[in-house]
Amino acid sequence: MKKRTFFATLLLFLLFFFTMLLAVSVILLRDKISIAREKALADHYVIASALFSDMQSLSARSMDILDSVGERMAVYSRSFGNRKNLLAVSHKNRWIYQNEKELSEDVKNFPAEKIEDARQIVTVKGTKRSMIYVYGHLPEPFLEYGLLYGSDLSGILSSWNDMKNLLFLAGAAVAFLLSLCLLKLLNSVFEPLVQISAVSATIADGNYRERLSVKGRDEIAEMADSFNRMAGQVERQIALLQEAAVQKQQFIDNFAHELKTPLTAVYGYAEYMQKASLSEEEHYECTQFIMSECRRLQDMSYQLLEMAEMRRSSMEACFLEELFAQSKRVMQVKADEKQIGLSYHCDAGYIRGNRQLLLSLINNLADNAIKAGKKGGEVCVLACQKEGGTVMEVKDDGIGMDEETLCHITEAFYRADKARSRAAGGAGLGLSICEKIAKLHHAELSFVSQPGEGTVAKVFFPKNTENFTDL
Questions:
Q1: What distance in Å separates the CA atoms of residue 257 and residue 413, rounded to the nearest whole number?
Q2: Cβ–Cβ < 8 Å for 199, 212
Q3: Bridge-partner residues for 385, per DSSP?
Q4: What CA–CA distance (Å, rounded) separates 451 from 229?
Q5: For the chain, what is the HEC assignment?
Q6: Full pLDDT tens readout for the chain, 471 residues
């Protein structure tokens, strides 16, 4: 594109530039010819006036004019013919004198070409050389006499030709310098485009960190800055896609692993029951274990369906006190089984959200707290209204978690203690579901924990996503 632009611009410039030079040359030539024409007219007038005076003198002395014209014209020829000029006199359309041995074809028939009533004829002709011819009749009573004066233009044309060549030579030098300037200008203009092309190719090859250098504050700099912002957005989106792909792959790997364990156990016990001779008690234990593993698979499928249903959830006003009452009826049984105290305290109004998902959030957090609790411990679920929004906390005094565990607890199928979690019947999806429910409600889920000191799970619902006024 740069080459096409350069040659097109250069061609248009040269066409315009040399056309202007040619026009200037033609104007100068016309001026020179016009000056030469005026001078020829003046010389013709002077010679004609002098010849007319001489003819009057000869006529007054009764002398033969035809015989004396040649002598008088010879004097004028020495005065006006030194510049290769032509002097000739005609009488009744016949040349009676010329200062050249032979007249050229341009002027042999000149008297015959005159207009009958014209006093002067001025023309520019040139077969062998360029001349300005001035022809005119003498005043009465000598109208049958005509004077032809020819002024040589060779010197004028030669000097004009030299000037024209010099002008075009200087124009060519100027055009060459301007073409270099044009090339440099186009290089500077197209340099950002070349950089953009190179950086785009680099980004297309997978190097998303490549950027353009921004110089100045013109349109090119704005374009480079916009390109860098676009490249940054592309890099961030690619990073997010790569992270999502890694998380999906991890989810699939973990899910396959989670399915493998109960299915292997179910298949093993079923094969054992088929091939071994079992007592009634052993048969019952095997079926109980198979049912337990099937129940875990069922819970896992329900949780996966719950994660899929989040995208189609609808929002409504959900009173936390009612949600706490529903959660307590479900979770109290599990707390009693582990001999853990469970309490709910609500000092907040309502939150705009999906009732079933919020209830699942509360139950999952409470369930994790009960599982992590110790016999005789306490689990407290409370909600309070603060300046920036509503805070819900689930506290336990159980085994707690270290920093590494806290960084991974919301990942699907992650377990800090796999043996303990499987024994408790968990699928490893509870906290991952909690995090997705919180994000769906524009809330923030966080955990504070120390090993042996228990854990506090906190959900903060910002004020801009809910309405705290009473209904």
A1: 9
A2: yes
A3: 390
A4: 44
A5: CHHHHHHHHHHHHHHHHHHHHHHHHHHHHHHHHHHHHHHHHHHHHHHHHHHHHHHHHHHHCCCCHHHHHHHHHHHHHHHHCCCCCEEEEEECCEEEEECCCCCCCCCCCHHHHCCCCCCEEEEEEECCCEEEEEEEECCCCCCCEEEEEEEECHHHHHHHHHHHHHHHHHHHHHHHHHHHHHHHHHHHHHHHHHHHHHHHHHHHCCCCCCCCCCCCCCHHHHHHHHHHHHHHHHHHHHHHHHHHHHHHHHHHHHHHHHHHHHHHHHHHHHHHHHHCCCCHHHHHHHHHHHHHHHHHHHHHHHHHHHHHHHHHCCCEEEEHHHHHHHHHHHHHHHHHHCCCEEEEEEECCEEEECHHHHHHHHHHHHHHHHHHCCCCCEEEEEEEECCCEEEEEEEECCCCCCHHHHHHCCCCCCCCCHHHHHHHCCCCCHHHHHHHHHHHCCCEEEEEEECCCEEEEEEEEEHHHCCCCCC
A6: 667 777 788 788 888 888 888 898 889 888 988 888 888 888 888 888 888 888 888 888 877 777 788 777 877 777 765 557 788 888 887 888 888 766 666 666 555 444 444 445 566 655 566 778 888 888 888 888 888 888 888 888 888 888 888 888 988 898 889 888 888 887 777 776 777 777 778 777 777 677 767 666 766 677 777 777 887 788 888 888 888 788 677 667 666 756 676 787 788 888 888 888 878 888 888 888 888 778 767 776 766 666 566 555 677 888 999 999 988 888 888 888 889 999 999 998 888 888 878 888 888 899 888 988 888 889 999 999 888 889 999 999 888 888 887 777 777 666 555 444 444 444 456 687 788 888 888 899 999 888 888 899 999 998 765 443 333
Nearest to 389 by CA among 441, 432, 343: 441
Gap between the Cα atoms of 273 and 438, Å rounded:
45
CA 208 to chain centre: 17
Altogether, the residues listed in the chain come to a count of 471
The residue with tokens 């050229």 is 104
For 61, what's the count of Cα atoms within 13 Å in the CB-facing half-sphere?
9
CA angle at 219 for the pair 214 and 220, rounded to the nearest 5° = 45
Residues in CB range of 404: below 8 A, 6 or more apart = none
